[in-house]
Design brief:
single chain, 196 residues, alpha/beta, Rossmann fold, 5 helices, 30% helix, 23% strand, globular, disordered C terminus, Nucleoside_phosphorylase_sf, Nucleosidase, catalytic activity, Nucleoside_phosphorylase_d
């Protein structure tokens, strides 16, 4: 029987989700997200042979790195923005810091720092469309455990200086993500393909 686990970083992002769903709050940042995702999947589905029936839905807010990007999006690709690919490759170290989810959606860059403008934002905008702090870690955990993943992000801000007011802006994200969940029918379906 299909099983759905919803993951979000912060309780403010899940304010408009039904109370009866299986919801785990990962906390903010990649380490917490990876650990909590792994714990949640293993506690609910310890048998790897049964994980083909298991879907993780990661929802949350994200900063937009491109002008005019707003609303709800399903990323097509996620990258670990904290990895210096060029330096590691120059040192002869293989790099696996991109996960393909497929589809036409935007590219999501994940890292542990909060992006609020400046040169960091400018550099990221050349590589990605959205920025968050958990998506890549959740995707890595799901890939490692062999479970399906669907990721849905809502643009809460422009990852600029105004992003510091995230706690005030996330209400819109929570409302729109709740509406997306209600309208998607995801709780009654198997919506995602296995990660490659």
């Amino acid at each position: 029987m299909p099983q759905l686990l919803v993951l979000a970083a912060h309780p403010l992002e899940t304010k408009y989700f039904p109370a009866d769903i299986d919801l785990v709050l990962t906390g903010v940042g990649m380490s917490a997200a990876a650990v909590r995702t792994t714990e949640a999947v293993l506690s609910r589905c310890p048998d790897p042979a049964r994980r083909e029936e298991f879907t993780v839905l990661n929802i949350g807010s994200a900063g937009a790195l491109k002008e005019g990007l707003s609303g709800v999006h399903e990323p097509s690709r996620i990258l670990n923005r904290d990895v210096d690919e060029q330096l590691l490759r120059a040192a002869g170290i293989p790099v696996d810091n991109v996960i393909e989810l497929g589809g036409p959606g935007p590219v999501l860059a994940t890292g542990d720092s909060f992006v609020a403008g400046g040169p960091v934002r400018d550099a990221l905008a050349a590589r990605a469309d959205l920025v968050d702090m958990e998506g890549y870690a959740i995707a890595v955990a799901c890939r490692h455990l062999g479970v399906r993943l669907r990721m849905v992000k809502h643009v809460s801000d422009a990852a600029d200086e105004a992003a510091i007011a995230w706690a005030e802006k996330v209400e819109v994200s929570a409302r729109d993500l709740g509406a997306w969940f209600r309208d998607s029918g995801i709780a009654a379906s198997r919506p995602a393909a296995p990660l490659s």
